[in-house]
Amino acid sequence: MGTFVDGKEQHENVQNTHQVVNTNIDLALLSALLSNTVSDAVSKQIGKIKVSSGTGSPLVDEFDDTKTQEKIAQSMLIERINKEANFDNLGNIKTTKKDQKSVDDTINMLSDLDD
Amino acid sequence: MSDKYKPGAGVDVGTSNIVVARQKEDGTFENRYHRNMLYALDVSDEATDLLESSNYLYVKVGDIFYVVGDDALKLVNAIGSGEVIRPMKDGILNPTLQESSELLFYIIKAVVGEPIKENESLRYSIPANPIDVDNDNVFHKMLLESFFKKLGFNPKPVNEAMCIAYDCNPVMKTEDGDVALSGICVSAGAGMTNVALSFKGLELNSFSVTKSGDYIDERVALATGINKNQIVRIKEKKLDLNNVDMSDRAISALSIYYDEVIHRVLSQIASKFKDSKSQMEGEIEIIVAGGTSMPEGYGQRFKKCLSDINLPFTVYGVRQSKTPFYSVSQGACIRAQADHAKAAK
């Protein structure tokens, strides 16, 4: 609203102001839309954004899933299908000969190493 | 059987082949090899007659015959249609083939056999982390470990390219003398090429690339319009990289893609191993092995490509394994024997 001087209404410079409009907007939806729009615009400019903790280092899932992987590996070894084969052993045989001293030297050297 | 072999088994679980090595008491290495392929055939009277008359090896699962190994390749070539099933892809278990993974374990068991003593040492080859795909090597390693434990072995993984070092013993030449088990080892397989830098038997650095033998076959098939299975046959039977007949479309394309694959590996060696230069204070040797290195002239082609690349090391020689197809399994067997010797100390 403006002020009155000599009976005439004077309007302030209204640049950069907005008229208030009351509408029913789902705030959660609006927030999601805005954040997507902003993040899309930013990522277009600077590339993908990594989610960071307060210290600026990337957030890493440190949960050790070794046990899960072990269980999955073991579950994959359960025989679920019935199989009938016309063989017991498989494969062709090729024999080779190596210098035994060289083999022994390698075995000695390796047996002193850790895994 | 237990008197026949020294304790310690080596298993090369490759994309294309499964090879198991054991050393006999007389010193010879016995390699049992099986092509890692299946061909599915619907059960019918005709199929049964064909399999029985040809003595093809198969596993029957429900309404399907899975013809195994070399017989799968023979059959697909004879029929001229369909594709073989590869239970492994890019050096690890193909996760998209659930039924064939169970068949793969069934087949590995039939190739490896029983341990010769309780908790016998066994080393199985695993690829290094690939630089060009996101593969789950950790799970692959865990799966094979669980499997071999179930068979009664004491299993440990071993880097595939390091097996080449244990089999072929690269030597580094220094002012103070020769240093054993030191150099670069290249295992050119079907699904992957694995590379390791070994220093006194220790793995200093390693990587793998998935563009290897299968990649060559696929690209040549695409470029020439010739069926991939036929390309495999041409590669295995006719290709001589010292003597390329450029009028032959398949042979010339194979030669061109071999060049690309070798150059890619050498470029990656130059890039990935440059930080390890300080530890290799001498002139080193490069050893090449693996099924993809088997065509005549591969070693010379490798040397020729090497002259185009600046490596961070001085290389005094490129040596091709005398037994390129068996170097990984034999190296794994030697490593397993060392485990046995260590346990006995």
Describe what you observe in this structure.
- The complex is a heterodimer of chains A (115) and B (345).
- Chain A has a two-stranded antiparallel ribbon with strand order 1-2.
- The termini of chain A are far apart.
- Chain A has 115 residues and is α+β, with helices and mostly antiparallel strands.
- In chain A, a hairpin with a 2-residue loop joins strand 1 (3-5) and strand 2.
- Chain A has helices spanning 27-46, 66-76, 100-111, and strands at 3-5, 8-10, 84-85, 92-96.
- In chain A, 5% of the residues are buried.
- Chain B has 345 residues and is of the alpha/beta class.
- Chain B has two domains: 9-34 and 108-211 and 258-344, Nucleotidyltransferase, domain 5; 38-85, no CATH class.
- Helix content of chain B is 38%, strand content 27%.
- Chain B has helices at residues 45-54, 70-79, 98-112, 137-150, 160-168, 213-224, 228-237, 249-272, 298-306, 327-344; strands at residues 9-13, 17-23, 29-35, 38-42, 58-61, 64-68, 88-89, 92-93, 120-126, 153-159, 172-174, 177-179, 183-188, 193-199, 202-209, 283-289, 314-320.
- In chain B, a hairpin with a 2-residue loop joins strand 7 (88-89) and strand 8 (92-93).
- In chain B, helix 6 crosses helix 7.
- Chain B is globular.
- The two termini of chain B are 25 Å apart.
- The model of chain B has no long low-confidence stretch (mean pLDDT 91).
- The interface between A and B is large, with 40 and 61 residues.
- Strand 3 of chain A pairs antiparallel with strand 5 (58-61) of chain B.
